[in-house]
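Practice problem: predict the structure.
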Amino acid sequence: MEFTLKRTAQIVAALLLAVAVTQAIYTALYIAEVEVPRQLMWGLEGFIFTLLAAFAGSAMVQARRLHLGWSAIAFSAALNVVQVGVGLTMFGPFFEAAGEVEAFAPAAAAVVAFSFMVYNAAKVLLALAAIVFGLARLGAGAKVLGGLTALIGAVAFVTNALSMALGRDFSGELPLAGGSGVLATVLLALCITGAVRGED
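Answer:
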């Protein structure tokens, strides 16, 4: 089977939607105070992000334009693999050690802070991709989808950059960075296939 740019873009869009769905499910379970199957959810996300890095990287070298957008998606996926990996392999041992020895508490907090720094960096890149593809669709005549994607992408870009600079609690109880990032991801997925039309 040949992976043309169109087919690759469709796969990237599907993977982005899958990531958004898993993050929405995880957030809903967490808010509802339901036991979250972290190994399953984060492991699945890690697998999806691994594939996303490969397919977005492939699209980046196949495409004749929008290379910045494809690059941002690919590197965002790679960062997310790191972030998920930290959560799966390091949260448990560090918090267990912190529970037994109080002196380990700062180390556990540092691991969480690092994980969120990587998370926000990945969201900044996805937001950048949303801006790039949104503006491309806007220029092609899809004014509502393109304009909304670029706008939400800009919001996600700023809020996640502020989270990196000021800490993840900069917006208080409002989940501006994460929420806008997930919404930008969904809109980005909707823009992608139309943006490569006619390039194959």
